[in-house]
TrEMBL record:
Residues of the HTH araC/xylS-type domain: 207-307
Protein known as: Helix-turn-helix domain-containing protein
Coiled coil feature spans: none
This protein's record includes keyword Transcription: yes
InterPro entries, alphabetized: AraC_XylS_family_regulators (IPR050204), Homeodomain-like_sf (IPR009057), HTH_AraC (IPR018060), HTH_AraC-typ_CS (IPR018062), Tscrpt_reg_AraC-type_HTH (IPR020449)
PROSITE patterns xrefs: HTH_ARAC_FAMILY_1, HTH_ARAC_FAMILY_2
The organism of origin for this protein: Streptomyces mirabilis
Lineage: Bacteria, Bacillati, Actinomycetota, Actinomycetes, Kitasatosporales
Length: 328
């Protein structure tokens, strides 16, 4: 929504509000009144999914936002803010001060009444609205904060991303299971630990491990043991989670490294030799890389590069065609 487009203000914010009320509902979370500045400059992209009494919003705001000074309105919900960029400042209940959630931090609290808030421009954040039933007793009057790279938040983030992409295809039983997994992980964030043998969490654990592996593909330390350590589970639990979705941890890592190496072979700015690619993507040597690549793709790296016309992109650095690395 962009209220700054010619003739759009204040309809941009009005359209956002109507969409929220129609698709999410005031029964889940009542949008507050916003300041005049926000109404005049409201540039926000969002992806919101409702799962029973919970809502997950991925927000990207180019403009700053601020509520009216006294939004009012009774609520009974648990709110979680996971901020990747920018900052989100939350008003507290009477007698308690403001709290700012900066980039790289999360905050979760029970909300009994709408309070003022504001966000910086260029905000990227997840906002979760959760039913209070199982979470309110765990929270009480506490506000839980911590880093977004904690194991529990990594799993929760992986699950919410999966929900956005799959919820439209889920039947009633799938929605129920997804809702249960979401609540379990929200409880884990509140408690600072999760039940690593809970079967409903296997898909989220698998996705979180994949997300982490994708960011560390060139890291020589990347292994099932490292992933398990970062996600605060046992290696056995990690293997069991992958098995539940029909995969293996080491196979996923190897295939992703091969995919990235294949992309590098055809990149205009590439030109790495076979041995350099092998070293970068943590294969034992160029012969091992070539054998593994051919087994997976049916061609050696040089054959693949030539078939795509990429072999001539780097005259100064080679993709060897006759050396021992290609003999396998």
């Amino acid at each position: 929504m962009d209220s700054t487009a010619p003739g759009a203000a204040p309809r941009g914010l009005d359209a956002f509000r109507r969409g929220w009320e129609t698709q999410i509902g005031d029964d889940v979370f009542q949008l507050p009144a916003f300041s005049a500045d926000t109404i005049g400059d409201f540039r926000v992209k969002g992806n919101v999914t409702k799962v029973h009494g919970a809502a997950i919003a991925d927000l990207h705001a180019a403009s700053a936002t601020r509520t009216a000074d006294a939004p009012g309105g009774d609520q009974d919900l648990v709110a979680m803010y996971v901020v990747q960029r920018g900052a989100w400042t939350l008003g507290g209940p009477p007698g308690r001060g403001e709290q700012t959630v900066p980039a790289g931090q999360f905050l979760v609290r029970h909300v009994g009444r709408l309070t003022a808030f504001e966000t910086t421009a260029h905000l990227t954040a997840k906002f979760l609205v959760l039913p209070p039933g199982e979470l309110k007793p765990l929270l009480g009057n506490r506000v839980i904060t911590g880093p977004t790279d904690s194991a529990e938040i990594r799993l929760l983030t992986a699950l919410t991303d999966m929900i956005h992409t799959t919820v439209a295809d889920l039947g009633p039983a799938g929605v129920e299971a997804t809702h249960g997994a979401l609540i379990e992980l929200a409880k884990a964030v509140t408690k600072g630990r999760f039940d690593d043998v809970e079967p409903r969490l296997a898909p989220a654990l698998t996705q979180a491990a994949k997300d982490l592996a994708d960011r560390r593909l060139a890291d020589p330390e990347l292994s099932p043991a490292m992933l398990a350590r970062e996600l605060n589970v046992s290696v056995r639990t990690l293997h069991r989670a992958f098995a539940a979705v029909g995969e293996q941890v080491a196979t996923y890592i190897r295939h992703r490294r091969l995919q990235e190496a294949r992309l590098a072979l055809t990149a205009p700015s590439g030109g790495l030799s076979i041995s350099e690619l092998a070293a970068h993507w943590q294969f034992a040597d160029s012969s091992h890389f070539t054998r593994t690549f051919k087994k997976h793709y049916g061609q050696t790296p040089t054959e693949y590069a030539r078939s795509t016309g990429a072999a001539s992109l780097s005259p100064n650095r080679h993709l060897p065609g006759h050396g021992p690395a290609e003999s396998a």
